[in-house]
Design brief:
Distance between the termini: 20 Å
Oligomer: single chain
Helix content: 25-40%
Shape: globular
Number of domains: 3
Bound molecules: alpha-D-glucopyranose
Number of strands: 22
Structural class: alpha/beta
Strand content: 15-25%
CATH topology of the largest domain: TIM Barrel
CATH superfamily of the largest domain: Glycosidases
CATH architecture of the largest domain: Alpha-Beta Barrel
CATH class of the largest domain: Alpha Beta
Largest sheet: 8 strands, parallel
Length: about 550
């Protein structure tokens, strides 16, 4: 690590993602809101969270629950008012918690006044704010090219009144803005300034990889992949060569950086981008002058296996060495909850949380992960998530088994489980049905119960967050693998090294106890996933450390 480089606040922080609709309802209408979040800030502070990212709470018809924005500078009435927002920001900053907003630059709702104007006539001044084209073939009744959306199906929507097609990358109710028009860019940069001037600490940038499309709208090339992965965007045999991750989009990341760099203290940009780690790296800029971070999703689809994790970690360390900042995501509002993928094994969840909070980079904890909330099954037909309804004709259980993910995202968005009371304490109104059905697990898995149980997942997260906060090597230290030889099939081990501190992290991925030669004669235990473990006493094991099944430890 270069001595000249001073670590920035965001490089050692821990982020908690709140899906506002599902966190805490204060009014009793079954929908979470800003006042509800304010009520729970003490809980988050006590948990040890330093930064909160909010999924969008801007004015929206809610067809994609806020990712379809109708007014980028106002709060959706069901979530509260601008006054509530100002209070939320103040209450967070008073507790030393940073605020990250979710900015959907790529598209607007089709209900946005800009789009209503734009679609009204060919010569409307807002026409060029979106991407309109004539169709192909005689009469223009075929879309301009063969592009498909991220959710499947043609990416073009026909408007009879002007006899043209408009481009969208996600769903037909969300239309892509045209960033080749400087007016659009300026308007959206001003929107960023609007919230930055209020004091927000940064942005999570929604599907940033989709900002630009090929200017000539060349037909997409076809390929063999049917389903996308965390490394590859190809979908339904389309490679997405001309509509994702364009060179112009990498340059755009640097323009965004210039907007936020005008602010003191430093603000942060986190990109939701697709593709493999090499591609994500391009968004950081050649001189770390692009986004501060981008999400690296490969961990979410990695099997519970130390060698597989070690491979990803080496790759990330190589592609994003310090001062580049990697990220570690285990779940979010689009993915299956990770504990469900672990078959609800709390010991395994504790181990992954330990890895997430001790690797170099920024961990993102999705609300409810800390208490082990599982994914809930929902019918596609009645899904709140529009993607679920789009695919309601699919045999869901078969598909989830085949592809390992659910076609409705409702399952990972259920209301937060605060206690065992009716509605899990999510809503003060026990007679209301929350916007999504609760997980049946709430009677047992809830904040109130887990706070009292020393062995709970919640108390493990708390202890981990405290250990991370109290040890500079975990926030800023260099990363180095600890050589394991034949043990590497069962164990992941590494060090975090800082000028003033050197720590060891040993993670036992096996269901058997392990004896490992200790690197220190008198190791001092800082943390164990076991609630009552106090020391490591290698003397009792002939100079070895004994790790119980799935145990993770931090020591010096
Ligand atoms: C991102 C969001 C997702 C949303 C989509 C369209 O992938 O995470 O929830 O539906 O973009 O904005």
């Amino acid at each position: 690590m270069s001595k000249k480089y001073k670590t920035k606040w965001y490089q050692g922080t821990t982020v908690y993602q709140i899906y506002p609709r599902s966190f805490k309802d204060s009014t009793g209408n079954g929908i979470g809101d800003l006042q509800g979040i304010i009520e729970k800030l003490d809980y988050l502070q006590d948990l040890g969270i330093e930064t909160i990212w909010f999924s969008p709470f801007f004015d929206s018809p809610q067809r994609d629950h806020g990712y379809d924005v109708k007014n980028f500078r106002d709060i959706a009435p069901e979530y509260g008012t601008m006054n509530d927002f100002d209070n939320l920001l103040k209450e967070m900053h008073d507790r030393n918690i940073k605020m990250i907003l979710d900015l959907v630059l790529n598209h607007t709702s089709s209900d946005h006044p800009w789009f209503i104007e734009s679609s009204s006539s060919r010569d409307n001044p807002k026409r060029n704010w979106y991407i309109w084209r004539d169709g192909k073939k005689s009469g223009g009744k075929k879309p301009p090219n063969n592009w498909i959306t991220m959710t499947g199906g043609s990416a073009w929507l026909y408007y009879e009144n002007t006899d043209q097609w408009v481009y969208f990358h996600f769903l037909p109710s969300m239309i892509d803005l045209n960033y080749r028009n400087p007016e659009v860019k300026e308007e959206m940069f001003n929107t960023m300034r609007f919230w930055l001037d209020k004091g927000v600490d940064g942005y999570r940038l929604d599907i940033l990889h989709a900002i630009y499309e090929d200017e000539q709208l060349r037909d997409d090339t076809l390929c063999r992949s049917f389903l996308p992965s965390d490394k590859n965007d190809a979908l339904l045999f389309h490679s997405h060569k001309y509509d994702l991750n364009l060179p112009e989009t990498y340059d755009f990341a640097m323009e965004l950086r210039k907007v936020v760099d005008k602010y003191e203290p430093e603000r942060v940009l986190i990109g939701e981008v697709s593709g493999n780690t090499e591609e994500s790296r391009k968004y950081y800029g050649a001189n770390n002058d692009g986004l501060h971070m981008s999400f690296l999703f490969e961990y979410t689809s990695t099997p519970f296996n130390p060698e597989k994790y070690a491979k990803i970690i080496s790759k990330i360390e190589k592609i994003l060495p310090f001062p580049y900042t990697p990220t570690f995501v285990l779940g979010n509002h689009d993915r299956m909850r990770y504990i469900t993928l672990l078959k609800n094994n709390t010991q395994k969840a504790k181990l992954l949380a330990t890895m997430q909070l001790t690797l170099r980079g920024v961990p993102f904890i999705y609300y409810g992960e800390e208490i082990g909330m599982p994914n809930v099954r929902f019918k596609l037909k009645t899904s709140q998530d529009p993607i679920g309804r789009k695919y309601s004709w699919f045999p869901m259980p078969l598909i989830s088994r085949l592809i390992g993910f659910s076609l409705t995202r409702d399952g990972c968005r259920t209301p937060m489980q605060w206690n065992a009371e009716p509605n899990a304490g999510f809503s003060p109104n026990v007679n209301i049905k929350p916007w999504l059905r609760l997980s049946k697990t709430y009677k047992k898995l809830n904040v109130f119960n887990e706070e009292k149980d020393v062995g709970s997942l919640l108390n493990c997260y708390k202890k981990l967050l405290r250990t991370r906060k109290g040890n500079i090597a975990l926030q800023e230290g260099e990363f180095q693998f600890y050589e394991l030889n034949e043990m590497k099939k069962k164990l992941l081990a590494y060090r975090r090294i800082h000028e003033v501190q050197e720590l060891y992290i040993f993670l036992n991925f096996s269901k058997k106890a392990l004896l490992i030669k200790t690197p220190k004669q008198e190791p001092k235990l800082l943390f164990s996933t076991l609630p009552n473990r106090e020391a490591l006493d290698p003397d009792s094991y002939d100079g070895n450390l004994r790790l119980t099944p799935f145990e993770g430890i931090i020591f010096k």
